[in-house]
Amino acid sequence: MFTYYMPTQVFFGKGCIAESGQVLADLGKRALLVTGRHSAKVNGSQDAFTGKLDELGISWYLFDDVENNPSIDTIRRAAAFAKEKGVDFVVGIGGGSPMDAAKAIALLCTDDLDDEQLFKGPYKKPLPIVAVPTTAGTGSEVTKVSVLTNVHAGTKQSINTPLIFPVYAFADPSFTESVSQTVTIDTAIDALSHAVEGYMSKLSTPMSDVWAEEAMRFIGLHLTDLKGAIAYPVREDLLYGSMLAGLTIAQTGTTMVHSMGYMLTYYRGITHGRANGLLLPAYMKLMEESMADKAERVWSILGLSGSDDFAALMKDLMGDTVGLKDDEIKKFVTMTMPTSGIKRTPYDVTAADLTTIYKAL
């Protein structure tokens, strides 16, 4: 037996907000727009969305102070602002950080959760959420997860509840055209990581595998196209692949790669997608042992000969090394072992395994 639940209505393609944004009228008369400080203004997404809201007679308020890896304090400031303005729905415009922030803000607008309850629940029904991705990476526009920085836990942690699936997602590839080469690489690797981890997860199903394979196909086509000028059709494929990878992890969750990567992001400041890319080759080496059939399928879809070929590709794209100290590794391993990502990994992961992988970085 397996289940499949995906309540988000997706509008995909250039101009989708102008063409289909009339559905927003059903959500209320006041909206909170949640963005980062710059990109939504530069790539045209904010203007496209506010233009549609103005056309529909919907008042809007802007909270544009979301940082990378948003903090609980930021979420609480935004929720207080939203409640002061009496908004009816929340819109996340940007990469994973603004979209994840919007989800948590929507929860806090209807429920006075303390910092512990924020990550554990139980939850009341939040305000409706709308997501507008402007990078091709997180897939947050179609997931039930919000990842925040939790200073109490000393790492990034997830809010995970079907209540925060966005009602609508507007995925316009043109908004990704101004993304830098570095961010394009990082986010593409993040999306690939979602597809691969979801495919290998203990919670994978025949339906999630369909999305995972399709995501790998669209992303894999362009892993050698991520440097230099990127044509619009490539941007379109990357955003589509990212969304499909999001559909995958909405059903399966992620595995040890994300759990280990959160440590690199929180303590070493390595971007999320890049952290995943550093860890993926060692992960796939383990998967060749425990899930040989699926690992071989991954290599076939990506057009690679195996984990060594994959490791060479990741090194070419990123070229990073980390050089962790022994005390750091010990701390990271201790914090990673109890996580849900380890439990979802279809390999009997030991502390020694994690230590070996971290040391290799």
Automatic annotation (TrEMBL):
Gene3D superfamilies referenced in this protein's UniProt entry, alphabetically: 3.40.50.1970, Dehydroquinate synthase-like - alpha domain
CDD domains: PPD-like
Keyword annotations of the record: Oxidoreductase
Alcohol dehydrogenase iron-type/glycerol dehydrogenase GldA domain span: 7-173
Domain Fe-containing alcohol dehydrogenase-like C-terminal: 184-360
UniProt xrefs under InterPro entries: ADH_Fe/GldA, ADH_Fe_C, Alcohol_dehydrogenase_Fe
Name this polypeptide is given: Iron-containing alcohol dehydrogenase family protein
Species name: Megasphaera massiliensis
